[in-house]
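Problem: given the chain below (449 residues), write out its structure.
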Amino acid sequence: MNIKQTIEADIVVVGGGPAGVNAAIAAGRSGAKTVLIEKYGFIGGMSTAALVYPWMTFHTIDGKQVIKGIAQEIIDRLMELNASPGHVRDTVGFVHTITPYHPEIYKVLAHDMLKEAGVKLLLHSFVDHVETSDGRIHSVQLTSKSGRIEVRGKIYIDTTGDADIAYLAGAPCVQGRDVDRLTQPMTMKFRMRGVDLARVKQYMMEHPDEFYKKTPFEELPQLHLSGVLGYYKHWKAANLPINRDQVLFFTGPADDEVLVNTTRVQGLDGTNVEDLTEAEELGRKQVLAVADFMRSSLPGFEKASISSVGTQIGIRETRRIDGLYALQVDDVVQGRRFDDVIARSGYPIDIHDPSGKGVTAAWVQGDGAYDIPYRCLLPKRVRNLLTGGRCISTTHEALATTRLTPSCMATGQAAGSAAGLAVKHNAAPADIDVAELQRMLEEDGALLD
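Solution.
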């Protein structure tokens, strides 16, 4: 391979989604020389490329906030830019709060925060090779418009969502559910403008039986409509070839705009290029069909039109590492605490069926939150690698909560902070003092208790 350029760093973060952004900011703020590599020409990952909107959730079902840190700093700064209302009541009723945001402003703000932290950002750069020996990564190699580039670091963080770096480095990975390796379905999200949201709310209050049973109907007249789940009769009557049983959309950022999360592409592998190609085709055809259905059948959508579609299909699940500990479904549901906690979450188990129509949900007991232990960020066999975001070590069932953006932000910050300590002490991530990491995270605003 003809290497045109070599870049040296202390910490190399691959994947510029919410986990990667927070990891790189934390790493850069630690004083370590940090590089963030992203395949698109912008950052934000699923939050921007796939229109994953809004962020759900930073709170427990009872409204107690359990995720702050850099994630909350991002929200505060978006609010200052009038690009987010902050945490608002979830009118779907699935969780207590959701956090709308303007994706285009988030792209710019995140870029600014990376610069402030001294992070070197490489966009339009795709890592396709990892050099390893003796259980350590020595460099990652990427393809770019300016040719092959080698990036060398002391510590690497995989925030690709698909465990690409761990997989290429030879760390053991797993995928999907144990019985058949099938993953949660992909969704092509899209926005519609020209929606009469007052008419939508009126129809909901007149026909509560057609919507999700936990929708806060008694509060609805006083609440800003933030999301809708239901239209069961309309959806069933439409008989579209999409294997799900309801319509789901969220409002904003504009006053007449919604983000539709209703398409469903099943049975395809998000790490297989031919499957991904098919998924993009199917997803975009489903977008047109769903938009036509909503215009013709749903009150308030008569004058609506598609305003944007995701740059890529949204992916809920692919590979994840087989790490030093895999978070279990019982850990989540029982609200289990761990001595090596580095993040918490109050989001329930939320499994979009890999082969069926429905969604399986299970809420967190105890105080409504569970711990994510540091060991979930550590892969086996590769000593200078950390993970953050969707590809941390969990079971298929537990992934259904850790995959959500706020959890990804929190584990990303933890990975970046841990990498900074590893560089500081010239140690492997598995050998750092977890108590020191926890103190560092709490000093930076993370909630661990």
